[in-house]
Design brief:
By secondary structure, this protein is an all-alpha fold. 60% of the residues lie in helices and 0% in strands. It is built from four helices and no strands.
């Protein structure tokens, strides 16, 4: 994982969150996807699909099972790019 791939993953997440949550505020990368970020399972899957399209990659479902925070998601995505 390089700084560039992590930054790219974070940009994609930020853009997708802004579209998914209009009341979106500054991102705290340590936020839990479900409790603190306020995303339900459908919103998380939609978010991941948008990110997959933007980064032109496929996120295996087992990877999502390991993701708890926004930073976890960014790190996992950066390893896939």
């Amino acid at each position: 994982m390089t700084t560039d791939t992590l930054a790219l993953a974070r940009q994609a997440i930020s853009a997708a969150l802004t579209r998914a949550l209009p009341e979106h505020r500054e991102i705290d990368w340590s936020q839990s996807l479900t409790s603190e970020a306020g995303l339900d399972s459908v919103q998380i899957m939609n978010l991941v699909m948008e990110i997959e399209d933007e980064l032109d990659l496929s996120v295996p479902v087992d990877v999502l099972a390991e993701v708890n925070t926004l930073n976890d998601l960014a790190v996992r995505l950066s390893k896939l790019t």
